[in-house]
Specification:
Layout (H helix, E strand, L loop, with lengths): L12 E7 L3 H12 L4 E4 L29 H6 L26 E2 L27 H10 L9 H15 L24 H13 L6 E2 L10 H5 L23 H11 L3 E4 L2 E9 L4 E9 L5 E11 L3 H9 L19 E4 L1 E2 L3 E6 L16 E3 L16 E8 L2 E2 L6 H9 L2 E2 L2 E10 L7 E9 L5 E6 L4 H20 L3 E6 L12 E3 L23 E3 L14 H20 L4
This protein binds flavin-adenine dinucleotide and iron/sulfur cluster (SF4).
Flavin-adenine dinucleotide binds next to helix 1, strand 6, helix 8 and helix 11.
């Protein structure tokens, strides 16, 4: 029974509620507040204030008790999150520990989460590519998922809008498969990255190496100074939280901006249990929250609700929002809620050495991470025996190669005079996976978590298409590495479970037909028009590009539409 004694219902009524304060929720909050709506942002985790709550941001390597390694006991207790490349002493406090928030893996799935104000926006690697018409047309062309209800042109102005505000560094590359944006200057490639780019340009003109596009202030504009941010200092310690606001996070950018309007109420430690549906009114009227400190159940009310809990948790909240009208989850007339969940396939890597260009080395650190190879497979025609394609990262660096041989004086001299070794080059695949009905999230019928919310089951896996795509990536990259004269090539077809790519999508997909989708072209529920879902749960297919920039664009576009509909009295 909801506790109605805490305060009056009126005090718990807002114009809008946003569930989740991460990348997409931060944008929804900013837009709703700027447009004058009294907005409640509900966040299950603790508060994290920009700068003040970044405890490790200025620590030196020797100041970490375990030199930034995670102690063995912690790894044993948290086998899933320990697999994430960024789970180290400097940022561990921003990751969810497996032990504290269990879920059921019906099939192996490494679910990486950040439960705090800012969500995973504190931890992300900040790679930001637009999706293109090749992605939004894809399902209609290849028949692998339902048709997207939008095309690139629908999203383009909103990409422009979020890029200008967030600050995205990149070059104008003129590629239809990776549309250019409103960029700050891109980060330069180093000599070997450029060499590989030139090699590909001469041998495989359709394959490009470009500077990776990233959410860093390479050269801030006035709007970024207005946000209290300054130029990125290239420290590449970003996952600790950046005191310069050098990279985009909800904590540094959208949430403070929303707060400045005086319209935002941020309520951390509030686990959203479900969305409340009123059958008489035929709409959602609010949300039920469990306070993590008191375990009290509290209901909050609003005219419009944005669900931004990150794809899998958004599915959980919707599936748990049952009523007579929606016994199988809110808006789930089609029965597809929780289904067609997909992700990216980052499971293959390839490494090599280059013995050329030894007169050069790298200078400073590149927060963009180096080069990006946009998708070139199956673009203009189907040319392989698998559907869709992959993009790839490509980077080169040159470390010192210290000779540790000898003894006494000779050993000392060797240690004091490290020499630069060969260039080390590496690439990882970023494959598109195909949403399948069997890729499903469900709720446990008996087991609940500490807040009385049913435990989640995940049954999402790779298939033959992924295996074929992975082989093609490794063969193709090996071939290109050989062409470039790289030596000591090592293939790693990683046996990792899905999930570690941290790009889960789908479950409440958009679509033209309410019989096969949950959301319309405005991220609005077909069946419950005052509920919008603008995180990864809304994705119809997955593209090869990183997804978060697209969640941002969807969020601002949906708020704009919701406001218009409210003005017309339709919501
Ligand atoms: C190490 C790492 C590297 C990454 N690199 C990239 C990259 O380079 N490019 C890219 O595009 N993406 C990257 N990502 C993924 C990116 O972080 C996510 O796509 C993005 O954060 C998703 O935004 P979101 O708003 O959906 O979710 P989040 O940012 O995770 O925010 C969701 C919020 O909702 C809260 N929440 C969940 N359930 C509830 C509930 N029931 N009640 C209340 N609150 C709730 C959570 O606590 C969280 O704060 C990376 C992620 C990680 C961890
Ligand atoms: S690289 Fe830039 S964004 Fe990252 S910590 Fe350094 S200054 Fe901050």
């Amino acid at each position: 029974m909801a506790n109605l004694n805490i305060d009056s219902q009126k005090d718990r009524t807002y114009d809008a509620i946003v569930i989740g304060s991460g990348i997409s929720g931060g944008w929804a909050a900013k837009e709703l507040c700027e447009k004058g709506l009294k907005t409640l942002v509900l966040e299950r985790g603790r508060d994290v204030k920009h700068i003040k709550d970044y405890p490790t941001t200025n620590m030196n390597p020797w100041e970490f008790e375990h030199r930034n390694e995670m102690p063995y006991a912690v790894q044993q207790e948290n086998p899933i999150v320990s697999k994430c490349y960024a789970f180290h002493e400097d940022a561990a406090h921003f990751f969810v520990k497996d032990k504290e928030h269990p879920y059921v893996q019906d099939k192996p799935f490494d679910w990486i989460r950040g439960y705090q104000v800012g969500g995973k926006s504190l931890l992300w690697a900040r790679q930001t590519q637009r999706w293109s018409d090749f992605d939004f047309d894809g399902p209609a062309r290849d028949g692998f998922a339902v048709d997207w209800p939008i095309r690139y042109a629908d999203l383009k102005p909103w990409y422009d809008y979020v890029e200008r505000f967030a600050g995205i560094a990149g070059d104008k590359d003129g590629l239809p498969e990776l549309p250019d944006g409103e960029f700050l200057p891109g980060y330069p490639l180093n000599m070997v990255e450029k060499y590989f780019k030139q090699t590909l340009a001469s041998k495989y003109p359709e394959r490009k190496v470009i500077s990776a596009r990233c959410a860093h202030l390479s050269k801030p504009n006035q709007i970024h100074f207005d946000q209290g941010r300054v130029q990125c200092q290239n420290r590449t310690l970003c996952q600790r939280g950046c005191p310069f606001g050098g990279y985009f996070s909800s904590n540094a950018v959208t949430l403070p901006w929303a707060a400045k309007t005086g319209k935002m109420t941020l309520r951390p430690s509030s686990v959203v249990h479900s969305i409340l549906y009123d059958e008489q009114k035929g709409k959602a009227v609010g949300v039920r929250v469990i306070d993590t400190h008191t375990k009290e159940e509290i209901d909050f009310y609003a005219r419009v609700i944005f669900v931004n809990a990150a794809a899998i948790n958004t599915n959980l909240v919707l599936l748990n929002s049952t009523s007579n009208r929606f016994p199988n989850g809110l808006g789930n007339d089609s029965g597809v809620l929780g289904k067609y969940v997909a992700f990216h396939n980052y499971s293959a890597r390839i490494y090599a050495e280059y013995e050329g260009l030894l007169d050069y080395t790298t200078e400073g650190r590149n927060p963009a991470g180096g080069g990006y190879i946009p998708r070139f497979r199956n673009l203009h025609k189907q040319e392989t025996d698998f559907l869709r394609g992959y993009a790839a990262g490509f980077g080169a660096n040159r470390g010192s190669d210290t000779d540790r041989s000898g003894a006494g004086e000779s050993l000392k001299n060797n240690l004091l005079n490290p020499k630069l070794g060969n260039w080390q080059v590496g690439s990882h695949m970023m494959g598109e996976t195909i949403p399948k009905e069997s890729g499903q999230i469900t709720l446990d019928t008996k087991k609940k978590d500490d807040w009385g919310v049913p435990l989640l089951h995940i049954a999402v896996d790779y298939d033959d298409n992924d295996a074929k795509m992975k082989k093609d990536y490794l063969d193709t990259m090996e071939d290109m590495f050989k062409t470039a004269g790289f030596t000591n090539i090592r293939r790693d077809d990683g046996s990792q479970a899905p999930g570690l790519d941290i790009h889960e999508m789908g479950g409440a997909r958009m679509g033209l037909d309410p019989k096969t989708s949950i959301l319309n072209k405005w991220n609005q529920m077909h069946a419950v028009p005052n509920v919008f879902v603008t995180d990864g749960a809304a994705m119809t297919s997955t593209s090869t590009q990183n997804p978060s920039l697209t969640y941002m664009a969807f969020s601002v576009r949906a708020v704009d539409y919701a406001i218009q509909e409210m003005k017309k009295g339709n919501i």
